[in-house]
């Protein structure tokens, strides 16, 4: 009887949790993006590209087995994007004290967390189901093999995709549970961990041990399983002994793809055990988290000094600096926005900013530009969450109720973000404004873009995750020398791109900011 009651509680919690998540626009946006990506994973044979291939020229015939394998590899990206789509449910229960009500019921902690984990996983599987429908449609349209074999389609999805998505669902729960990972820091850290794990996995495929055939079948993405199968079929069908490496989004120029016989897929027992191990790791971690639930809920007490919602530091020098703005209504709002933003910064933020300032002032242009990117990332929570303040606190009707208030607050908040961006790069702007004007102008263009897109994406998605993921990805590319945020790589190109995108962000803000079209 007790077991049946536990199952009923779990089922009821899961149903309510999934229905609530499916109301979020970001889930449907992810479903649309991944379904579209699934369609483009299977271009016609005449295309000059392929999404999943081996050696840049070999791919499987578009049958059910290859469709399933390609979708399982597409889940590498779903494991990243899906994390940002599903996280937040547990954090919301803790922040709103809903957990205190649930804790008073007979529901065990482990059952509650299992329900949350299953909710995360089910949402990811719904997104994968949409991508699968798109993949099957591509199979029928491309007509390379119109016979649909649901078993061969499902095998890679269950063996490769399911364990990976279960890990993503577990990580979303863990990052919601730990207080210091619930917001921007956790979003940035997950991207770093995802990139590092993928890099280690790819490096492992190039090792001598992998080339000798003694592959470790337990990498979380399942890439080694696909890699082994593809190279075995290459050796059998085309007598290719060397391992040319698999690729995602392979460029083919004017070459025609060469087909691999991929009508079925039989994983080894060792590979199946490795995949089951990852599924067990995810499930076991969720059960172990139950012992931390009460502690995590207790950490959501009154805000600490300097926290994002507390009173923060006094910063009397800031009051004196902002005093000239107090003469007008708009200036007063701007001063309040700056005080609210800067007083919440913790001591470590100011120390880190000073370190970034020193690098900007003394280092070579390339290193100084990376220090500027680091300073912007330090302030990522401000850029991503400033447009969500009233939405999260339920104060929109009060703040924007007066005539012209929405426009006044929106403009003041945008200007506040611009000034914070300038503060992050003040030494670089002064230094290169004198000796390297194109670089300084490019930095100003990026600052305007960060402020505009931070507010626009926040107002559009009602979430900080999209902008945080975008900036973290661009910061990673900046380290590799890409000019998106690295103003030293190509100042003219960087500035031109960001300036060109400003009208689009302004249009989104006009359409989505509270009262924007009527202010």
From TrEMBL:
<feature type="transmembrane region" description="Helical">
    <location>
        <begin position="121"/>
        <end position="141"/>
    </location>
</feature>
<feature type="transmembrane region" description="Helical">
    <location>
        <begin position="440"/>
        <end position="460"/>
    </location>
</feature>
<keyword id="KW-1133">Transmembrane helix</keyword>
<keyword id="KW-0812">Transmembrane</keyword>
<feature type="transmembrane region" description="Helical">
    <location>
        <begin position="491"/>
        <end position="510"/>
    </location>
</feature>
<feature type="transmembrane region" description="Helical">
    <location>
        <begin position="153"/>
        <end position="175"/>
    </location>
</feature>
<feature type="transmembrane region" description="Helical">
    <location>
        <begin position="27"/>
        <end position="45"/>
    </location>
</feature>
<protein>
    <recommendedName>
        <fullName>ABC transporter permease</fullName>
    </recommendedName>
</protein>
<feature type="transmembrane region" description="Helical">
    <location>
        <begin position="65"/>
        <end position="86"/>
    </location>
</feature>
<keyword id="KW-0472">Membrane</keyword>
<feature type="transmembrane region" description="Helical">
    <location>
        <begin position="414"/>
        <end position="434"/>
    </location>
</feature>
<feature type="transmembrane region" description="Helical">
    <location>
        <begin position="467"/>
        <end position="485"/>
    </location>
</feature>
